[in-house]
Amino acid sequence: MWTSAKSVQFGNYQRIAAMSKKKSNVWQYFYKTSGTVATCLLCNRNYSRRGRGTTCLRNHLKSKHPPEFLSLSGDIKYLDLVKTEISIGSPQHPTAQLELNLHETDSDPLDTEDNSYNKRCDEKLALMLLNHSFEFIEDSGFVNFIRVLQPRYTIQPRSYYEKVLCEDIHRKMHLHLKQQVDLLDAISLSTSLWRGDKGEGLLSLSCSGISRDFQTQRLMLKCEALNYESTSKLACWIRDLVPSLAIEVPKEKIHCIIRDEMTALPGSLPDCNVHRLQMCVRFALQSNELLQNLSSKCKQIVDHFASSKMANDHLKFIQEIRLTRDPCTLIPYDPFQWNSAFQMMTSVFRMKDALSLYCEEYSLVQIYPDEWIEIDLCSKVMQPCEETIKIWSNPSTTTSSVIPLVAALRDSLRTDVHNFVSSVTICSFARKLLEELEMKFSHITSDIKFLMAAYFDPRYKQAFFTEREELLVANEVLRVLAGVPDDCNGQPPLKIIKVSSTSSQKNESKIDSILDSILTTGTTNTQQPNTSLGSQSQIKNLLYLYNSEPRIDRNMDPLIWWRNNIKYSSLYGIVRKFLSAPAASVVSEGLFRKSAHLYFDMQAGLSPESASKILLIKSNLCFSNSDIN
Q1: The model scores a pTM over 0.85
Q2: Which residues form the BED-type domain (predicted)?
Q3: Angle at CA 556, nearest 5°, toward 529 and 206?
Q4: How far apart are CA 186 and CA 194, in angstroms?
C-alpha cells in the first residue's frame, strides 16, 4: 500500500516538475520546495541548494539512486560527464557492470533510403479503405493519430490511395486470380446482379472449382459497380460479362455458367436453382386470390401496430401480463424478400391469442377461425421450400443436391395435396406449387450435369435414378474417361484422414426428414453398368466397385471421402469437374451491403471503374481471408 501511494506521489511530483520547465533534467527527480531547498521524489529527503546549483542533487542520485542517475545520460550535455563518473566509481557497485549503449536507439524505418517501408505503409492504409470511405483518411482524429504513431509518415491525398488500390494492388490481385484459375482443372462460372432502392447496384462474375487436393476454391473474377446512370448500359454489360473477362480462361475449362434471375438470357429461365424455386412460389401465390387476400389482411394488422407505439405496447402487455408469455414481434412485409409474405403471416399466427384479446378491446381487421387454419397450413406447405432454399444458398452446396432435394420437395407437396384436401385454398396452392416445380425443374433428370453430380456424390449415388438415368450416367462416364490418364500420376501424395460427420446432431428439418426417408427406403444398385462400350472393362469394374460401396451419411463431406479413397484416382478429374458447380449463383447482396461507403464515394466523385476494381479486391480478400501478398 505504501509503495502504491509513493508511486502515485512520485507521479504527481513528476508532472509538477515537468510543468516547471527547468533547464536541467535533474529536476525530473526533485521538487523545488523553496529557493534553497529541493526534495527528492524518490526518497522524500530534503537537500540544501545554497549555491542554487544542481551538483549536490546529481551526487545524491549517483550515491543513492544509480539507475536514475544513469538516465540523466539522455541529456547530451551530461553524456561524457556521466560516463566518466561511472567509470571511476566503485568497481563493486552494481552500476559498474551496466553496459551503456547511450548512442544506440531504435532506428526510424522512415529514415532509411529504402522506399519499401513507405510503400508497405501506403498499401496497408489503402487496404483499410476497402471498409471505409475515402473521407476516413481526411478525418482530423485519424490524422492526429497517425501523427502521434509515426510523425514522419505523410498522409497523401485520397487520389493517391485510389491509385494504390486500383493500380498496384489490383494488378497483384489480377495476377493472383490468374494463378489460382490456372491451378484448377475445371471451373463453374456464376453471374449475379443486385440492385438497391436508389438505382445503385452490383454486377458480378465469380467462379468456383475444386483443387487437386479436393479443396473448394471460390474466386470473384469481375465486379461492375452500377449507379443510376448505368441503367441504359446494363443489358450490354450483362451480355458481355463473360466475353469481356480480363483473365483468359479456355472454353474447355468452363464446366457451366449459372445465371441468376436478373442476368438470365432474354426469354430463358435462370440457371440458379434458388431463383427457380422462388419463381415457383411466387407464381403459385399470384394464382391464388384467396391466399393473397389473407396476406393483405395480415399486412393491415402488421401495419397497424407498426404505426402506433401505443397499440404495440398494449399488445406486448397482453402477451407478458395476461398470457404470461415471452413477447413476440410482428415481421413487416419486405418486397425485396421472396418469402416475406409467408414470414409475415407466420408471425401473425404466432400471436393469434394476443391479437384475439386485442380485438376484444379495439377495432382491428378480423381474421376468422378458418383463416387461422389456412395460415397455419400455408406455413407447413412453405417450410420445405424455405429449408431447401436455405440449403442451396450455402456456398458449399453443389448441384449434386438438386435432384435429391427436388425429389423430396415433390413428395412433400404431393402429401400436402392429399392431406389438406379439406382446405380448398391451401390444397390449390400446394397443387399449383407442385405444377410449377415439375415444369421448372423438369430438365434436371435429362441434364447430364445434374445426373453426374448426383452420381459422384457418395451421399446419393443412384438413389434417385431410373434405369434410363443410370444408363445415361454410365455411358457418359465411360465416354469421358476413354482418353483420360490416371490422375494419381504427377499428383502429390494425399494425407489419409478419417471421414467424419460435419455435424454430431441430426438435422430435424422437414425436408431433411423426407430426404432421409427416401434414402432409407431406397436400395443401392450394385449391378455392373450394361453399356455398349465393352472394351472399357477396367473402368466398368471401377464403377461397379464404387456402386457397391454403401452411401455415406448426408452430414459428411463428399470431397473428403473422395480425397481419402485414392483407389478411385482415375475418376478424380471428372469428379472435380461435376462437383465444382454450386447449386445457386453466388449472391452479390452481401458484398453490396457491406460496400455502401463505396457508393457514397461514387456520389462524391469516385469513378465506377475505380469502385469496380476496389470491389473486386475486397470480395476476393473476403473469399480467401488472407493477404494477396
Answers
A1: no
A2: 21-72
A3: 90
A4: 27
